[in-house]
């Protein structure tokens, strides 16, 4: 288990948002970002144990990294068996990479006449898969751990500090939004910077 992959991913994402940010080019960030995230989650050898602990119920949202300028963040979502989120939005671009287990993402869109939210596309993710979320294209969804007998873990990357923004949950029947701020579960972030073993190994 080595955190090196995560550190490299964060470096690559920092370069990416630094280059594309002047134009606020979301499409460019997400196009390259989903390849980087796909590479990260196709290897399950880097997530620290403390960030992977399956909760008794519901889900943990562990912040792995937030960019100093809040241009992006990386979060480990750890799902209890069968856990399900409310129907919600994000207010920023997002990418969901499946690391361990499996989850489903059911998209909703408002009925133009009644405003009620109607279910649409259902994406099923398995390890190595990445789903992209874009507010411009409609990002209201509900996520469920597809496994009812074990935990699942997905690594989420968002175009901001997702835990500290006002966003919404929705009443599906009426489409009524309700403000919420999700926060994070962990109080401490993993140490990305103790590279001493690597340096000692160099002769
Ligand atoms: Fe979401």
Overview of this structure, please?
- Keywords: Dioxygenase, Iron, Metal-binding, Oxidoreductase.
- Belongs to the cysteine dioxygenase family.
- InterPro entries: CDO_1 (IPR010300), RmlC-like_jellyroll (IPR014710), RmlC_Cupin_sf (IPR011051).
- The protein is of the alpha+beta class and 203 residues long.
- It has one domain: Jelly Rolls.
- It has 3 helices and 10 strands, in the order H-H-E-E-E-E-E-E-E-E-E-E-H.
- The strands form 3 sheets. It has a 5-stranded antiparallel sheet, with helices on one face. A 3-stranded antiparallel sheet has the order 5-4-7, with no helix packed on it. It has a two-stranded antiparallel ribbon with strand order 9-10.
- It is globular, with a radius of gyration of 17 Å.
- The mean pLDDT is 95.
- The chain binds fe (ii) ion.
- The site of fe (ii) ion (FE2) has 4 residues, from strand 7.
Give the topology, please.
Elements: H1 4-20, H2 26-41, E1 59-66, E2 73-79, E3 94-100, E4 103-110, E5 117-125, E6 130-133, E7 141-145, E8 152-158, E9 167-170, E10 177-180, H3 196-201
Antiparallel strand pairs: 1-2, 2-8, 3-6, 3-8, 4-5, 4-7, 9-10
Helix pairs in contact: 1-2
Bound molecules: fe (ii) ion.
Fe (ii) ion (FE2) binds at residues 88, 90, 141, 143.
């Amino acid at each position: 288990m080595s955190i090196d992959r995560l550190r490299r991913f964060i470096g690559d994402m920092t370069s990416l948002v630094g280059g594309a940010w002047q134009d606020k080019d979301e499409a460019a960030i997400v196009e390259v970002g989903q390849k980087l995230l796909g590479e990260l989650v196709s290897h399950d050898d880097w997530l620290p144990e403390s960030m992977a602990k399956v909760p008794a119920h519901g889900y943990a949202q562990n912040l792995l990294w937030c960019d100093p300028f809040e241009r992006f963040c990386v979060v480990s979502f750890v799902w209890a068996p069968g856990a399900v989120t409310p129907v919600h939005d994000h207010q920023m671009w997002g990418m969901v990479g499946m690391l361990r287990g499996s989850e489903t993402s059911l998209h909703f869109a408002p009925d133009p006449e009644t405003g009620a939210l109607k279910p649409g596309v259902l994406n099923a993710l398995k390890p190595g898969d990445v789903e992209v979320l874009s507010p411009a294209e409609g990002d209201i969804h509900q996520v469920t751990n597809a496994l009812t007998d074990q935990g699942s873990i997905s690594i989420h990357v968002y175009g901001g500090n997702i835990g500290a923004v006002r966003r919404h949950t929705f009443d599906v029947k009426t489409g009524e939004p309700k403000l919420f701020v999700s926060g994070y579960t962990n109080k401490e972030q993993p140490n990305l910077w103790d590279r001493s073993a690597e340096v000692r190994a160099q002769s």
